[in-house]
Queue: 3 jobs
Job 1
Amino acid sequence: MRRGRPGRGVIAGRPPAAGRARARRVLLRERDGGLFDVDEQRVVDAAELLDGLRAGRRFRAHRRSTGADCTLEVLAEVLGPALSGPRAGGVAVPLVGGVAGLLPGPAHPRGPDPDVGHG
């Protein structure tokens, strides 16, 4: 169902497709783990990619050698140190855009709560 003013191209609160395409960064992952931005024709470091994630910018990563998608691998490598806290030199990261939904919640140390769902 369309929302917003007629003819504006807004569906369920999402920006027009051109805005989404512009915001998504396409990266090539080198054999040494480095990242190269295809559109900007330059190397991107983990800190810059993390800043983009904080701002809600999307990305896709592909291995330069095979073209295989490696987005989740790059995401894990960028978020891992940031989520591990000061011990590893990371900083707290406010997760945006549903990234938090990709991470499992902590396991309950005592197992399931005996008072929930048992009648």
Job 2
Amino acid sequence: MKFVLFLLLVGAVVACRKRQECHRAPPQPTFLKEVGPNARMEYFAILMNKTATIAELNEAVLAWAKRYNVEKQQEEYNNTVTAYAEELKHNVTNLVAELPKALDRFISISQRKDQTIADMMKGLKEMREQEFEVFDVVWKAFNVFKPTYCLHRNHKKPGYSLNLGRLDDDLENGLENEDTSEEFELDGGLAEMHGLGGFSDALKFL
């Protein structure tokens, strides 16, 4: 049974966005509708056991399904989850293979010197609309490797790091104000883009 794998993979599913293709929804344990509230609470209590091994959890769920006469439904659910996990693995494998090309395109757009900030934002927005999955992975990768990134550090401290949430909104909704002197929010305060030597240079600090 692979229900534990399902719990691990749900968080990795790409969320649906406006104007973007939605992926198939993860399988749901519909067999829980066929049992009472106490049985459902018991089922979730099994899944929340953090001290049991995966093998022990599998055995506990199997015993639970037999006890409440939903063994067949639970097995069908496991099979669906297994197929879903394989599909997800296939999609992620393909995405990883596309990352080098996407990174080259991202860098090409962001480091051109013969464009305005608005032009570059438009180019990044168009790239995201065309291939939002690989774009988001590349975008977040820059965030991971920015100088201020540290698992043990408060990220709200001042630093030369662009606010990804703000830029995400800009890329999603387009530039409402194409004035290149528009202020962009930084971690810890506001700074004009001209003060950072241009948006393409600022990307180095993502």
Job 3
Amino acid sequence: LVNCLLDTGSERSLIRSDVADELDLQGPTRAMTVKGVNGLHVRIADVRRVQFRLTPIPSKGLEPFNEGIELTALSLPSLCDDLVATPTPWFCKDKIPSLPSNEITPDRVQIGIIIGLDAYFQVLGQGVRRGGPNDPVAIETIFGWIVCGPTMRQTANRE
């Protein structure tokens, strides 16, 4: 089981090296410069290009998708800092009945795979649920529903 982050800001999909090693993924290695925000350039000596199948955990109430997707990713020692799992916003639950009703305990989550633009649209399903103009949007994926947008109500005097 690995946590994935859908990231439209990444051109390529990435996998943490320890996850690739655990899965015994093999592939050619080469040196590469990774570019990031604010002109950041990092030279990494041994970037491995690996291929694997990414499949969702079977779940009740989800439309059955094919057997996941074939993903080609670059293996890097570190992808991003741990993220905080965010509970489903309370104001989404009534508008999007397909969302899970169980609460997520806010906790740090380690990301093992970043799904970049090279594979982003392969994981999207057909469903989109919208609330009001300033509410988040729920999007169906092969992993279930994800919520994009603001996760907390903004007050008028808060920036």
